[in-house]
């Protein structure tokens, strides 16, 4: 049963070539939904044989949903441009057990890297995501950030995606800052309200959990830094939500 690769991109010229080389190992076609990149992302993608469609960014979930209309196959491998299947995940795909299964979405474990350093502490491993699903019965949520796949029959498998998302702490913090903005906006649109104490409480709990209970304390300055980053996201999400409500008063 053939697979379509689906990737959403914006200025990914550093990653898209390797991403496509990896996807074409097991995908019959690859669809790129590009958010009007200003670098060579589109040029590289087309040169590698991907089909490219331009769409101004709609948010994480909606952008992926938009791309499904161009995917001719039911089974979708929906990776980010900086994600690649590890050898165990490639072996899982090549066995093709999914073809005769009632499962319509598979959740893989994610290995996150800062540069070439594996971040397997502070709550960053075992991370997991559904990236492989059947579009007949499974589909992305409408979340602006941290979308997930809504499926009929999901299964977690102990195979891995390699995520080379950041080269520096600045990139990690910038991404978390953007995610906190989107998360706050989504909570605001749902009418969610919180007290002024909520950011402090959640930020503190996030740090304690990641640093003391998720092995951050055993990983030196990196463990402390990634615990703080998790705390920062939780804190800023609710601070921004409070400010959104203040702005309409």
Describe the fold and architecture.
- Keywords: Transferase.
- Belongs to the glycosyltransferase 2 family. WaaE/KdtX subfamily.
- It comes from Myroides albus.
- Pfam families: Glycos_transf_2 (PF00535).
- This is Glycosyltransferase.
- The structure is a single chain.
- This protein is an alpha/beta fold.
- It folds into two domains: 3-166, Spore Coat Polysaccharide Biosynthesis Protein SpsA, Chain A; 169-247, no CATH class.
- Helix content is 39%, strand content 24%.
- The strands form two sheets. Strands 1, 2, 3, 4, 5, 6, 7, 8 and 11 form a nine-stranded mixed β-sheet that branches.
- α6 runs antiparallel to α7 (220-247).
- The longest helix has 28 residues, at 220-247.
- The protein is globular and about 50 Å long.
- The N and C termini lie far apart (55 Å).
- The mean pLDDT is 95.
CATH homologous superfamily (4th level) name of the largest domain: Spore Coat Polysaccharide Biosynthesis Protein SpsA, Chain A
Q: How many domain modules?
A: 2
Element string (H = helix, E = strand): EHEHEHEEHEEEEEEHHH
Radius of gyration, in Å, reads 19 Å
Q: In terms of per-residue confidence, which ranges show pLDDT below 50 for 5 or more consecutive residues? A: none
